[in-house]
Amino acid sequence: MLNAGTLAPDFELPDKNGILHRLSDYKGKKIILYFYSKDNTAGCTKQACGFGELYPQFTAKGAEVIGISKDSVASHLKFSEKYELPFTLLSDTELTAIKAYDVWQEKKLYGKVSMGVVRTSYLIDEEGVISKAFKRVKAAENPSQMLSEL
What we know:
There is one protein chain. The chain has helices at 42-60, 73-82, 96-100, 142-149, and strands spanning 12-14, 20-22, 30-35, 63-69, 88-91, 104-109, 112-117, 120-124, 130-135. By secondary structure, the chain is an alpha/beta fold. The strands form 3 sheets. A 5-stranded mixed β-sheet has the order 5-4-3-8-9. Strands 1-2 form a two-stranded antiparallel sheet. Strands 6-7 form a two-stranded antiparallel ribbon. Helix 2 links the parallel strand 4 (63-69) and strand 5 (88-91). Helix 1 packs parallel to helix 4 (142-149). The two termini are 20 Å apart.
């Protein structure tokens, strides 16, 4: 996980429509950048829907919400439409941003060890510097936690 005070690594990833987004495109805005493991899983859906419900409050505070997972563009499109998510989801099938933000890590589930995305959220300031970093966040609580950090 990257620490507060670190310049957030730039990336270029496609959204649900295949349009490329760069972190640098959002300079001048606060960014809630969250990494999650998989579309349509229980925890990830709770987290995404929470960000969706609070999205007007994030934008009122001058912040954008961006979610990143290794799911495909097509998966993000279905997920976003199914839950009417108003914010940007980016597809990182090559794990470039996921690894740059140090969220691709060893995980243990029922004694089985595997590599995967550790649910992590970053608050990035208007200059592109990480101001807060939260590792292993609780899916249902993370959206309100990030809103309170603004």
